Each structure stands twice: as C-alpha cells, then as structure tokens.
Amino acid sequence: MRKRRDWLGKQYHKLSMPLSVVFLLSGRRFHPQYRMTWRRKWALGRRLYRNWRHIRTGISYKGHLAIAAKLLEIPPSVKGVVVECGCWLGGTTANLSVICDLVGRDLVVYDSFEGLPAPLAGDNMKPEVKGSFRGDLDVVRQNVREYGVIERCTFRKGWFSDTLSSHAEPIVLCFVDVDLKSSMHDCVVSLWPYLTPKGYLFFDEYTLLHNCAIFFSERFWRDYLGTTPPGLMGSGTGVGVGQYFLGPWLESPAIQRPTSLAYTRKDFNGRWDYFPESETASEPPAN
Predict the structure, then answer these.
(1) What pTM did the predictor assign?
(2) Residue 287: its pLDDT value, please?
(3) Where do the domains of the chain lie, and which CATH numbers do they carry?
C-alpha cells in the first residue's frame, strides 16, 4: 500500500509540474530586473523538480516555487539575505540556493546538523525525538554542491538558542522548519526583528493548529516583540500550491500529503479588534 501511495504521489507531481509552473510563476508583480521570461521560468521549475526528486525534503518543489514567487516580487534594491532554519539533508537548501542565485541574494543556513535537540517540557514531544531529522554538515554541503549553488550559502552550525542571537543581516525571507515549539520560539523572537518591512516568514509546521497559534497569540507578540500578531496564511492545510491535503493530520487519506507550507509577512495583521460591547459602550446616548 505504501509503495503504491508513493508511486501515485510521484506520478501526480510529475504530471502537474507544468501547471504548477504556470500557476505559481505567473505573477505580474515580478520585478523586471530579474528578467523572468517563460524560458527562465520553465528552467527554474524543471531544476527545482529534479532536485526534489533526488533529495528527500519536508516540502515539495511546489512549495519551493511559492517561495521563489515571493522573492521575485521583492525589488533588488531592498537589501537582505534569505535565511533557512532547519535544513535536514539539504534538499530545500539546494533549491533555495538556486532561487537565491536567480535573484542575487545570499542564503544563511542555521542548523545543529545533529538533529532535533532534546525537547523541553513545553514542547509536548516524546524524548525519543532527540536526534531526528539529522543531516551532517558534510552531507548537506555535498547535496548543495551537486544540486544547488554552494557559493550562495553560509552555514552556521549550532543550536538555535546559541547561534540566532548573533544574527545581524537584514532578512527579506526566512524559512522555518524546526518541529519543536521551543525552536519556533527562538527563531521568531530572534529573526523577526531583522525582517525587512515587507519581508516574508515561511513556516513548515502548519498542519497542527497549536503550532500556527504562535502567529495569532497577542500575548507572545506583545511580550517578546512589542507588536501585534501577523497571522498566518495557510494555517492547518497550507497555501494552495497544487497539493492535496485537507487535514487534519491524523485524518488525512493515504494519498494526501502535507507538502505545502504557510507564510506571513512583516506588515500583515492577524489581530482581532471587533468587540460589540466596546462599540456599544462608545456610542453616544440616544435622545
């Protein structure tokens, strides 16, 4: 059953690749300086698809195309790097490096290269997850060297709690795939201040609403970042990139795969501000 499911999934992604390129790279807001002719769009789509077939990743090449679409909208005059937090075997890293080379930006990769850390009490995860999704730095480098653009990459090895506090570059786009709530906390608190005014944060842990909740928590954003929550596009099921996943995770049919992603932006607003009792209280008394 598993082999048949995997085969069906691969065939679907193969057959839908041309449509994915058309729908995801048809943006009219792409900056003209990138010269994204359809020839270049097809070349990008084919390369991202090929890389995805060769290196196991948490999201599909369609998710990578969605990231490319947003980066292509950012003018080259806006200075900033792309950041990846959690790279596993380097499949997404390779594709991000290709996209970064296309738009002339550097890619900064943060990872322990030792797998997940031991979960904290608030993570609500079993201790056995420690070490999961390990990709040695040498393996990641080799994958990127073979399939991506290694010259665009800077690798910063260590636990997020130790490395992210030293980040200094402005960020136009950040991709977070870290699994643990404690790691999500570290990534958002440390990197959000460095996002450019319309910088993007893409998020892989979108299938569980209690993970998405960080982007709607007024207490979190007030206490740690002194602002209001931005919300999250794609909470629960991911943004529409041509994948099939209705959710929730435990009830999904075998052929459905949560291989999309979710995202937010520095200038988004996910704060609820309508309270009828307050509106009534502020109205002038009737004559």
Answers:
(1) 0.94
(2) 47
(3) 2-280 (3.40.50.150)
